[in-house]
Amino acid sequence: MTHLNRRQLITAAGAGALALPLGVTAARAAAPAAGPAAGPAAAPGGAPAAYASYPSRPVTTGAESEAANGWKSLTGQKVGIITNPTGILTNLRTIVDEMHEAGTVDIVGVFGPEHGFRGTAQAGGSEGTHTDPRTGLTVYDAYGANAAKMEQLFRTAGVETVVFDIQDAGARFYTYIWTMYMAMRAAVATGSRFVVLDRPNPTGGTARGPMMTTAYTSGVGAKEIVQAHGMTVGELARFFDAEFLPADAGGRVSELSVVEVEGWRRDMPYDATGLPWVTPSPNMPTPDTALVYPGTGMFEGTNLSEGRGTTRPFELVGAPYVDYRWAEKLAAREIPGVGFREAYFTPTFSKHLNKVCGGVQVHITDPTTFDPMRVGVEMLVAAKSTYADFAWRVDNDPRPYWIDKLSGSTRLRDQITAGASADDVVGAWSAELAEFDRRRQQYLIYRGPAA
């Protein structure tokens, strides 16, 4: 377990220096698990060949380690748990049910994020505050709660220790990390301890994409991080605690603990972890969905369907006005790690309900070379240049374009509208990405070729 407090902040030794995070020994950093830094060759049939090059021992989540220790670090405290259906053990039971039945943890409240604690709500919804019928525990509605609301909920429940255990999807506009951030701010106000039961980032450990700007922060990007942050929630908690909380909350968490994932490497595809995949939200059915999401999620900011209402959301993208030309143009780009299949689908809800849409299905051919941000930009550029009906989605906000809140500024929209190439769009964020990557290094816990 990594224990952090104000006195234990590790600072970089100099510009560009890589400090070892707390709990990572010099030997561990110098000798990461064996495996190639570059992508593996393809196996027969097109599947990545080198999953065998990753460590054969199973990946163990923070929750599993804590359960194996009898939840000892949580006993004798009034515990509030922020979790959802992904907060499970290898026996596929939730940590809340396990702790409750064990009787060793005093759970004073469960806090449900977007989609709810038991996962019954669709995008943009929650389960409300209620009594959980299985455990009898009070479940508080934490979706969209700001720091003041979260503080009120913690005080109402009498929380002394906050536990966060949710499988993130690795994209800035996935809301669970902002629920965690608001909870951390509330923990500062209430003097609560904060414990993260860590899980792998399904997009890997490489940071990608543009930086959020302060003018475009919102519930889908509350602070200035890049679009695909390449960090686990435990690493993000360390980053938030040092980089944002002092200014936003007037101080840092009194005690921040990260129960680490064992056996995970930054270049490891989720399918190589051996962990079960539980949908973090109704439209995130597979690890491949999570891998494409930081890029194709940007289509939420357009008039194309991002595949909601199909069995392959964010992998199927299209609109009634799209034809075969989009797939052909994308295939001709020969983008590493991905193929594009001409596809037709009819969404059963959300955009273009019950209308036949032409478009593409994004097929990941090599997750070790696949770059979701590059793919998303290539798709946007090709769609805008091919179809006169392409349009950016407008909402009721003084900042009217949803894509600006997803990408962090007006720049991406302005460039693509003006006819910029994908190379120009991706190149525009290189400096800010490099600066973010430099800043985040001292908070990283896990190493490997992609660190």
TrEMBL record:
Transmembrane segments annotated in the record for this chain: none
Signal peptide: 1-26
Peptidoglycan beta-N-acetylmuramidase NamZ C-terminal domain span: 291-446
Name this protein carries in UniProt: DUF1343 domain-containing protein
Annotated GO MF terms: peptidoglycan beta-N-acetylmuramidase activity
Peptidoglycan beta-N-acetylmuramidase NamZ N-terminal domain span: 79-287
InterPro entries listed in its UniProt record: NamZ, NamZ_C, NamZ_N, TAT_signal
Keyword Lyase: no
Keywords, comma-separated and alphabetical: Signal
Pfam families in UniProt: NamZ_C, NamZ_N
Gene3D superfamilies with a match to the protein in the record: 3.90.1150.140, Uncharacterised protein PF07075, DUF1343
